[in-house]
Amino acid sequence: TKKEGDDEDEAPEEPALPDVIETGRMLSAVGEGVDEGEMARIFRSMRTFAMANPSAENLQFWGKVSTKTRPYYVIECTMAEYPEGEGE
């Protein structure tokens, strides 16, 4: 958020992301295996994605799918704009 006297040349504003640590606590409370360290890594990945894709909005972590080989994380977002040639 810009404050009075801030320079316009500052780094881009941080994307609005959900509180994934709290989501992880809720999932752990109901027996799902997502600890705080794992949720912190998920948050960093979501932040990296949002910073690389400024038109990504409303990112939401839905959960983890465990498979024999590795876990998959389900994250949803909407795109305000699609890159040229996509989303048609």
Automatic annotation (TrEMBL):
InterPro entries found in the cross-reference section = Radial_spoke
Name the residues that span the membrane.
Answer: none
**Any single Pfam family the record assigns to this protein:** Radial_spoke
The record's keywords, sorted A to Z, are:
Cell projection, Cilium, Cytoplasm, Cytoskeleton
Principal place where this protein is found?
cytoplasm
As for subcellular location, the record says:
Cytoplasm, Cytoskeleton, Cilium axoneme
Q: Name one GO cellular component term.
A: radial spoke
UniProt record, GO biological process: axoneme assembly; cilium movement involved in cell motility
Check the record and name the PANTHER family matching this protein: RADIAL SPOKE HEAD 6 HOMOLOG A, RADIAL SPOKEHEAD-RELATED
- Protein name (record): Radial spokehead-like protein
Q: Which organism is it from?
A: Kipferlia bialata
